[in-house]
Amino acid sequence: MQGFRDLVHGWFGKAVVVVVVALFALYGTDALVSLASKPQPVARVHDAELYRDQLSNMVMQQKQTILRQNPGLPLDLLKDDFLRSSVAQRWVERQLIDQALLEWGFRPDQKTVVAQLKADSRFATDGQINQQLLEAWLTQNNLTPEVLFNEIRTNLSLDQLLTGLEDSEFVVPKEVNQILSLQEQKRSFEMATISPETVIDEVDLSDKKLQAYYDEHQSQYMNPETAKVQYIVFDEAQMTADLEINPSDAELQGYYENYKQNLLLDEQRQASHILIDTSARSDDEAKELADSIYERIQNGEAFADLAKEFSDDKPSAVDGGSLPMAERGTFVEEFENALYSLNEGEVSQPVKTDFGYHIIKLDATESPEAVSFEDKKPELVEEFAKRQKDEAFRTKLDDIELVAFESSNLEQLAEQYELEVQTTDAFNQSNAPTPLNSKDVLDTVFGSTFFDEGRNSDLIELDGKVVIVHPVEFTPAAPKAFASVKEDVKKAATEEAAVELAAEKGRAIMAQLKLGKALSEEQTALLGEWTEHKETERRTTDVSAGVIQKLFAMAKPSDDKPEYASVQQQGDFVILKLDSVVSAATAEDGTLESVDEDTVATLGEQLKMSNAQSLTALLVDALKDGADIEYNIGLGQDSL
Questions:
Q1: β partners of residue 273
Q2: Number of neighbouring beta carbons within 10 Å of residue 457
Q3: How far apart (Å, rounded) are the C-alpha atoms in residues 162 and 167?
């Protein structure tokens, strides 16, 4: 290991050591996150820091990726705690690699990065960068072009390293043929199954054994924790029903003006633009060209013709620079500010963005037409009344909250607001009465301090209502009496004992078969019919994966004597009898006759990749040696 570390940190490591890109697939451009500074990073590698919001975004994106690849996967299997630990560890490993790449001088130039961008269908059309797609994607992901370019550059560096390793690796044909021979091998076997149902009648458990089973599995026979509480419900509709609200037209006018302003936000604009990018020219050159084009437009030349001739946004250039109708927030800030400052038909002076210089023309606008004040008035009155009632209710809640805090019970509140204090029967988290069956109420009632403190709860807001609860009685979770669950215990214990008995009888039969001894009538009857499977391939779905795995791990039969093995699955004891092994036919040169050249070549590449993967853990371990890595205590280093 020390020798490997020396290589990693020396010049030779630059040419030989590599990490498999697949290990870091999570961190491609799909997983970019905002780099805004946040306090207290959850992880740090040298000067690179990972913040909690970034980690949360990565976890969410990892979860979405897993769900896309496994559509039917239950959501409860994707625990955030597990994903958070996994993602944080991978971020640390990625940072170690990134920093090593920078130190070793693997840094593709801007031209290579742009070429990669043009090859990505998210940002390009027909091999050319689509400015609108790129801007929309960056806006959606809250990123700058610089961040995107840096991520692409890093991934290209990883690709470069991987390619170098694969070119230096070689796999001999004999190794490929050996693996292919194993893959193409076929096995003929027979299978017999001993089911627990066939022996369950033989199981007779004493009360002592049932008691022992109950004691061992007591957690499965628990009464849940229960709570008994008092509560008051404050209903906004009831408490504001008598409120008289008669707004004047003057009061409603402000609401009407807000309505018209909101319509302006819904306005869409259709623009054309000419982009002079700065990826292939200097900023001064781009600015000079953009100024000259703008001057030609002012002198009467057609905007569309100049867009076709000069615009670097090729997809829109073929349409005279025309872009689709778009709402606010579609374009980057500088572009959008210029667009919304124009009247229809006007052309802006060159506008600088991260993509270059844009000359923008406003072609058309679309916005909903405002309804007249009189037609809108009923809705305005309703909106006004709702706000007045909300404010009145909020004012009352301030007083309610104070009284609840100062009181040792709910009686004063009930008397003051002429409400009834409700008292529940004991309930658990699955049968709470309405309106206490909400998550917020249950989290409060069954929280760790509610009954210990013995005070009124804070205000718990529900849909149009507010609830305050007061503790009465709490009963912790406790085992159910053995007598009350004895039948359930007997059923479970008997089923478990039947599985053990079936396995015990199966192992006895296996011992007889391996010794070549005849089975008893009872054993023969228990096995039943053997199911025959001729020349079975590894890829078959006729039997379970567990059976296939065991079958192809068995030694070849010798001297016409079958081989025996067993496997347990879903309670059944399965006995396998391997009769024969058929190897794939080979030509004189050792190649397999049934395998084409493409398959051989593909396996060769997979083996080379496998060899590269075997160095991944060594590389990460070597880079971690002496690296300045720190985990935030709040995240839980042990969990990472």
A1: 360
A2: 20
A3: 9
